[in-house]
Specification:
The protein is mostly beta strands. It contains one helix and eleven strands. It has one helix spanning 3-18, and strands at 37-38, 47-54, 60-67, 70-71, 84-91, 94-99, 103-106, 112-122, 128-130, 133-134, 136-143. The chain crosses the membrane at residues 6-24.
């Protein structure tokens, strides 16, 4: 098989894993809203717990503990399913990235008080909600100037 074939395969896999479409990330297309998805009656309600671990060298290791939810990077931007998808990480109200697993390394934060928020989203980027409330967790981190 040709090199062009393999390059195409590798690029397709990379795009699926990262959710990237030829340089147009979800974030680069603007912070447009998505309708929330209410967890259907009788369905287990997902939960998320954000635990912030200071890294031994620099930055923070974010542990995203979930229940009744499956991270599904292979389903990125596909059909919504209430119990699977990805998380969105917000720092001080600004969306930073998608998270497709239980751990994420955050290298820097501004000195002072910082709000970290993780919310659960469906494969097609709808915020998951239960009884009208977003399924999310928030942690506040105080950063000294020399901590970065």
């Amino acid at each position: 098989m040709s090199a062009k074939y393999w390059i195409t395969i590798v690029m397709a896999i990379a795009m699926i894993v990262t959710g990237n479409r030829l340089g147009l990330t979800h974030e680069s297309q603007g912070n447009h809203p998505h309708e929330p998805m209410e967890i259907p009656e009788g369905q287990p309600v997902p939960t998320v717990d954000l635990v912030v671990h200071p890294d031994n060298v620099r930055g923070w290791n974010l542990e995203v503990k979930v229940s009744n939810f499956r991270f599904a990077p292979e389903q990125a931007s596909r059909e919504a399913r209430p119990g699977e998808g990805h998380a969105h990480l917000y720092v001080n109200g600004e969306k930073i990235t998608r998270i497709y697993g239980n751990w994420y390394y955050l290298s820097t934060l501004k000195p002072g008080q910082n709000q970290l928020r993780v919310s659960l989203s469906t494969n097609d980027h709808q915020d998951l909600v239960h009884q009208g409330q977003a399924i999310e967790d928030v942690e506040m981190i105080q950063v000294e100037a020399e901590a970065n």
